[in-house]
Amino acid sequence: MTELTPEQEARKAAYIRARGYWKPWTEGLLRLHPDFLDAYARYAGHPAAHGPLSPVMCELIYVALDASATHLFESGLKLHMRLALERGATARQLVEVLRLATLQGLDGVAMGLGLLVEELEKAGQPLPPPDPAHRGLREAYEARFGDWPDFCDQMLRLDPAYFAALLDLLSCGDGGDGLDEKSAALISVALSACFTARDPAATRLHLQRALRLGATREELLQVLQMTAHLGVHACSLGVPALMDVMG
Questions:
Q1: Could you say which DSSP state residue 4 is in?
Q2: C-alpha 23, offset from chain centre
């Protein structure tokens, strides 16, 4: 390809300042549709420029979104892991982000369990009453998270052993040099709110938890704005493909 013009070099530098990277798809857009590249840089850079989240927190959110089983975007995952480490994240924090993305699988359990309970009741098979012997599990969950979602009550009644294992998994990130509770809640908001998951019940639960942990309106707004950025992966894949097709 031809060398970049001085104007193109200036646009490239501005994009790198705003987004922190330069990739084949951005190179392609610079050559094919530079106005779109500029507009995207302003749009995607706005939350970081005006929101309160730290640069490392932003990268941790991107790691979660790219690693999520609803997206699985490997090149973006590696990019944002590298940027997170460069900006001060620890390996333990990155593993904690991956643990939160793993826990996203529970959203399907919660949704399906609610439907199962409804259908069982229609079929004349209501839930068994709460067992006093399992009261300690509920108290442990409430002490840890400050709430008691319907799916927890349903699971504890139907399969207390599974609920105990679940509680251990939910709590294994406590302590150490991993994520603090508010950061974990913000990342969970991003995972559940992103359009690749789009789970209103889980999003509401994690918003409530984040607010109880002191998250501000501005922090939560920035998290929600950042979830839109996965849409540009259409360009990440499509622009290099177009350049190949064009020869």
A1: P
A2: 22
Q: C-alpha 151: how far from its chain's center?
A: 21
Task: Please tell me the distance from the alpha carbon of residue 231 to that of residue 243, in angstroms, as a whole number.
Answer: 19
**Please, which contacts does 110-117 make with residues 24 or more away whose CB atoms are closer than 8 Å?**
110/149, 110/151, 110/201, 110/202, 111/199, 111/201, 113/151, 113/154, 113/155, 113/158, 114/150, 114/151, 114/154, 117/154
Token pair, residue 163, equals: 């609920």
Query: What's the whole-number average pLDDT of the chain?
Result: 95
Question: Rounded to an integer, what distance in angstroms lies between the CA atom of residue 222 and that of residue 210?
Answer: 13
Residue 166 has pLDDT above 70, yes or no: yes
Closest alpha carbon to 170 in 196, 190, 143:
143
- Report the pLDDT value the prediction gives residue 17, as an integer from 0 to 100: 85
pTM above 0.70, yes or no: yes
